[in-house]
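Workshop exercise sheet. Pairs work together: one partner reads the sequence aloud, the other fills in the structure field after running the prediction. Swap roles for the next sheet.
Pair: D.N. / O.F.
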Amino acid sequence: MTSLSTLQGSNAGPYRQVARAVVRGVTLILGYLAQAYRARRDSEHIMGFSDHLLKDIGVARCEIEAAVRWGPERQ
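Structure field:
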């Protein structure tokens, strides 16, 4: 069985680097998933708006996805 003191020895560096890389990767993926979930949720919410309300805020129904995902600067 591997003890903590064995891992803290000379081989701890590569294990620690791999662990950090895995944590960074998982964090990045979870961030993208959370962003995609929020964009989908917001798109569905705005799709429920009436055409009159969409016209008032200056967004056409076909522009909702782009407006939610990238904002007004990339339309």
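Discussion prompt: The two ends are 58 Å apart (CA to CA). What would you look at next?
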